[in-house]
Amino acid sequence: MSMAGSALATKPQPQSQPAPTTPPGRMSRLRRALSERRTRFGLLNAAPVVVYLLILFVYPIFSTLLLSLKGEEGGWTLRWYTDAFQGADLEILLTTLRISAETSLLSLVIGFLLANAVTRLKPLWAGLVMLVVIVPHFISALVRTYGWIILLGEHGVVNNVLTDLHFPGAPFQLLYNETGVVIGTTSVMLPYTVLLLYAVMRGTDRRLLAAAASMGAGRITIFRRVYLPLVAPGLVNAGVLCFILCLGYYLTPALMGGPKQTMVASLIDDQVMKQNQWNGASALGIILLLLTFAGLLLLCLLKSAGEAYRKRGTAS
Amino acid sequence: MPELDVKAPTITRPPDTGTGTGTGKPLSVTGLRKTYGGVTAVDEVSMEIAAGEFVTFLGSSGSGKTTTLMMIAGFCEPDSGSIVVGGRDVTRLAPQKRGLGFVFQQYLLFPHMTVWDNVAFPLQLRGTPKAELRRRVGETLEMAGLDGMARRRPRELSGGQQQRVALCRALVYRPPVILMDEPLGALDKKLRDQLQTEIKRIQRELGLTVIYVTHDQEEALVLSDRIAVMRDGRIDQFDTPRELFEVPRTPFVADFLGAANFLAGSVEERTSEHTLVRLDTGGLLKARPLADGSGGRVRGAVQPGRITLCPAGDGFCTGTVETVTYVGTLVRVTVRPIGGAETDVVRLELPAGRAPAPGERVGLTAEFADVSVFPDAEHRG
Q1: Are strands B80-85 and B226-231 parallel, antiparallel or unpaired?
Q2: CATH architecture of B259-375
Q3: Which positions in chain B touch A214 (Cβ < 8 Å)?
């Protein structure tokens, strides 16, 4: 800030110096822009960010892309991609999508109920509950996952309680299948959905609900016609974010899932660590990236669809 | 404007509340009471409101006016007392089951709906057939001068327009009573004046029964058929603006509405027609009869606009002109009475042409019918 302050405090220099040597037109305009102190200062400020992005973002992505397109004996090929969309690999891809969708949905539902409950609490209690939701996130996901394994095992707390209560069907198989993966992953994703939804719900003016009630709207109508539309953007954001995070999530599915719950991240791990197959792993990585982009695109589409829907509602 | 004339009869239909409008007054409140942690916010408020009446709760903050309104609306539950709307006891009913209309100070339009949808919302809740819904929403918006705004979102409107939409939304379904909580409080003076006129016009045209809450005396006087002046959770006086202004029943009402001058003295003579008060400054003030109290120490109350000048030595008081301030066509004058305390000044409002000069000695006089007198015990402290 002191730099900016002193720069602003100095006497302004003449901005357009006569430059007879430069050709007229775009070049001269560019040069004049570059000669302005503001522009130079801006470029200087942007440089660290640009370097950072080039080294840590652009370079890795492009090298991964290149790797995924290289054949085993040199040359270019698409075979890693065709492999990924065939047989067992395709199944893993579909499983990943399915588990991600299930987890997102469950996180949304639980997150909605939780965030909604928290918004009704007094500020002190709300802060406390949010702390309880977020603090587990500071603990390693590995530890938490092992915690779930202990809880959900055949003789774990959950099954013991259910058996003692003579719950029909108990004990249940809650580990090394899809149920286990979804439970574990949901617990990891929950803080994100709760935080996002809580922020939106906090920003929603609850007096609007009172206004609807004063006009004669019942609870269900208020929820459906007023509350839900107001928090819908938050729901979409949280859902898509959760989905994207799930797509590349490795730890919990690997530990709590069975062979049928292998997700793409595990497959990549397998290819790199066991088969030393970097090209195929790169292709899978790129596919995940594209799926993420698809998710973001879906987000945009949903938002504009929502706008269009509201506009159409007006026309009638 | 022939179209408007054709539509007018359909607009001015009596409220179709379905709760038997003929069975009673639109609203009657009996012995309403509410305490918050030992502090009494509303204390034994009772009133009856006639159909088509515009009633205002007037009071400063903490007077219980908003709490009373919230209890009528159902947003807060009274400790005791009852609220009857159109012959139906609604005291313990949820707000949505009372069938009233409410206009909030903060508008509270639904931001995700257009103006049209906002106004149509309460009709949709009531399952109004589509054609009728369209007609009624259209008419209501037109009446409020919002015909061109139907497709806009609330955030694209100015504050005044938003409040008009809120008004439309509250009256489109013809509730038996519309409650308004300082609806113009967030608007600037000019817009407020304009909307006051408009609210009054719509209320008269449609014969709406309105309960309005405000702390602005002028607004209350402009709008209301009757005003309930509230203080410390009680109604000090519930009367027409004229009665409140001319025959205030408590010193508070005289002060709050009329910004009256208070003159301390003792009763010298009491008849059924008038009271004679010997003021502490020496003069004799003729006032209306004292309603109650023993006589003894009293205070006379005269509004600044009801005092006129007379030759020094005449009238109820003689004093020196201290300040003269021009306020448009009026002059505000303060006079320090001879023999009075340092802090006692009498405020006057005179036509601009009759302004005295500062330092001049003047006498003050007032018609005895304009002078109220109150026992002194009440408003001291």
Answers
A1: unpaired
A2: Beta Barrel (2.40)
A3: 73-75, 95-96, 100-102, 170
> CA B94 to CA B365: how far, in whole Å?
56
Q: What is the pLDDT along chain B (381 residues), one digit of tens a residue?
A: 333 333 333 433 444 444 444 456 889 999 999 999 888 999 999 999 999 999 999 999 889 999 999 999 999 999 999 999 988 999 999 999 999 999 999 999 999 999 999 999 999 999 999 999 999 999 999 999 898 899 999 999 999 999 999 999 999 999 999 999 999 988 888 899 999 999 999 999 999 999 999 999 989 999 999 999 999 999 999 999 998 888 888 889 998 887 889 988 888 888 888 888 988 888 889 988 887 666 688 888 999 989 999 988 888 889 999 999 998 888 999 999 887 776 778 999 998 887 888 989 999 999 988 898 888 765 443
Which pTM was predicted? Answer: 0.77
DSSP-derived letter for residue B63 is S
The CATH number of domain B2-100+175-246 is 3.90.1150.10: no
Instruction: CATH 3.40.50.300 in chain B: give the residue spans.
Output: 2-100+175-246
Are B110 and A208 a contacting pair at CB < 8 A?
A: yes
B220: closest CA of chain A, how far (Å): 24
ipTM reported for the complex, 2 dp: 0.77
Q: How many CB atoms lie within 10 A of CB A260?
A: 12
Here the tokens at position A252 are 């919990």
DSSP string for residues in B159-199: HHHHHHHHHHHHHTT--S-EEEESTTTTS-HHHHHHHHHHH
Element (H, E) at B286: strand B284-287
**Residue extent(s) of CATH 2.40.50.140 domains in chain B:** 259-375
3-state secondary structure of B380: coil
Contact in structure between B19 and B88 (CB atoms under 8 Å): yes
Could you confirm whether domain A88-308 is CATH 1.10.150.320? no
Burial of A190 (0-12, 13-18, 19+ CB in 10 A): buried
Query: Do B172 and B15 touch, CB atoms closer than 8 A?
Result: no
Handedness of CA A256, A257, A259, A264 (dihedral sign): negative
Contact present, B72 and B179 (Cβ < 8 Å)? yes
Inter-chain residue contact A210 with B95, CB threshold 8 Å = yes
Distance from CA of B124 to the nearest CA of A (A): 10
Task: List C-alpha distances in Å: A141 to A96, A144, B233, B264.
Answer: 19, 5, 58, 80
In eight-state DSSP terms, residue B363 is E
Question: Is B112–A210 a contact, with Cβ atoms under 8 angstroms apart?
Answer: no
Question: Does any CB of chain A come closer than 8 Å to the CB of residue B265?
Answer: no
Strand (E) or helix (H) holding B35:
strand B27-36
Residues of A in contact with B126 (CB under 8 A): 216
Nearest residue of A to residue B174, measured between CA atoms? A215
Closest CA to B271 of B287, B289, B254: B289
Where is A129: in which H helix or E strand?
helix A123-134
